[in-house]
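Title: [Solved] DivIVA domain-containing protein 3D structure

Original question kept below for reference.
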Amino acid sequence: MDARFTRTRFAPGYRTEEVDRFIARCERALAARDGSVTADEVMLHRFTEARFEKGYSMDEVDRYLDTMIPTLRAAEEGRAPAAGVPASLGAPPTGAQAAAEGGAMDAARRLGARAAHPAGQRPGLLARLVGSGR
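Solution (posted by the thread starter after getting help):
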């Protein structure tokens, strides 16, 4: 795995083992171009939150997975990723790709999925400590 993420200890983070396994699976799928991991699966995947144990920065993991989506979409459509961009890092989306991804994100939001950017939708530290009812 080429990706490196900031480790968390007392701040919320994703469990390192889960992230490592999923990213390795994504990278194998990109290398084999076998469709075993889809862009939609990456968008909707949820990791277990690591509390008071070592984890990876949620924002960094989410951003990294967001960069994989265009490359996975290109593989699904049988296109090559943009020249000069390593497959594991993803390519900048074209206008059509951005529109397709926007449609997929809208569909995920309609379904109530928060996986596109769960870090931005987490409750704050105080809300987690005292409960959401206050």
